[in-house]
Every structure is written in C-alpha cells, then in structure tokens.
Design goal:
3-stranded antiparallel sheet, single chain, Arc Repressor Mutant, subunit A, globular, 53% helix, 3 strands, mainly alpha, 191 residues
Length: 191
C-alpha cells in the first residue's frame, strides 16, 4: 500500500485539480467544474473535499451564493510534494503506478490543448476559410524534447538546483495582459 500522501496526491482526478490550480490560481468548485468538464460534478466535489481535508487545498474566500457557501480554493504547494522518506517506502509497482498517473496527466493536458483548436479548424475547413483559432505549437511555444547529458553526481545536483532556481524565479508571476499560463513538467531519469 502506498503512503497516504502518495495515494492522495497521485489519483488522476486529484492531480488534475492540483494542475488546474497551479500558477497561483484560485478557483471555486464550480470554476473547476467548468475547466474539468469531463469529470462528473459529484466526483469533483468528493476529490476537492479530500484535498481540502488533507490541507493540500486551502480556502482563500467564502461567499454566500443562493443560500449555500461557495468556497474559493488555492493549492498549498508545500503540501504537494511527497516526502523522500515516503517515496523510499513505495514499491516498484507503486512507483510505476505513480509515474503512470503523472504521464496520463500530461497526455490529458496535451489532448485538451490539441482539442482547443480542433473545432475552429474543422469549421474553417468546412467553410474553406482560414482560422487563427487552431493550435500552433510554434506560436504557442509548445515543445517536448529529450536530451542525454553525461554528468557526475555533483554536476547532476548542480543542474537540478539550476532548474529549480529558473522555475522558482518565475513561479511568483501574477496573471496580467500578455502573460499566458504555461505548464512546465520535468522528468529526470538515469539513462
């Protein structure tokens, strides 16, 4: 059995909730439902409640809406990391399942990105008109690459720290005109 943190965090729906809130976003469950349209409302509410109960999500605002309390949630980033000692207790199969959930989340994000452009592109193709609504990987800065680096342990630790610093320096950026929310995922493996 995986540790409670791993079990909690590595569920596909809960991963998507956390991903939706990355970048300092604050959302109500209704707003999450509008973004995660393929997740049934009852399922989404159950998973948001589990994350809030575990204090991975925090309530940042409450509003009375039609007699009910609507909560706005934000993710507590420090609560989203599985401690190294818990990772060390996971079996090979549990790590395989965790990585599968992570990769499935990436595939889902990429599919949703591609689907954003498919409807306008199909309409344009039918009407024989040009569209700017379709996806354009170059314009949107989308990429997926793999590199092999020969590094000793010290050089590897330095690389990981440099990557952490580069991402951290930009992680506090607030939304504003001209900025788009971009997802950055890393996978580091020995070759």
């Amino acid at each position: 059995m995986a540790s409670p943190s791993a079990t909690l965090l590595l569920h596909p729906v809960r991963l998507r909730v956390l991903q939706a809130l990355l970048g300092g976003r604050r959302m109500t469950t209704n707003e999450l439902q509008a973004e995660l349209t393929d997740v049934p409302a009852a399922t989404l509410y159950r998973h948001v409640a589990a994350l809030a109960d575990a204090e991975v999500l925090t309530v940042v605002d409450e509003q009375r809406v039609r007699g009910a309390v609507e909560r706005t949630y934000a993710v507590r980033l420090e609560a989203t990391e599985i401690p190294p000692e818990e990772l060390a207790t996971m079996s090979v199969e549990e790590h395989r399942q965790a990585f599968l959930a992570f990769v499935a989340g990436l595939l889902g994000d990429f599919d949703r990105y591609l689907d954003r452009g498919s409807r306008p592109a199909r309409r344009a193709a039918r009407s024989n008109a040009r569209t700017t609504g379709g996806v354009d990987l170059a314009r949107d800065g989308v990429g997926y690459r793999q590199a092999a680096l020969w590094l000793d342990d010290a050089e590897y630790a330095e690389l990981v720290e440099e990557l952490r610093r580069v991402v951290q320096a930009r992680s506090d950026h607030e939304p504003r005109d001209g900025r788009r929310r971009r997802l950055v995922a890393t996978v580091l493996l020995p070759g």
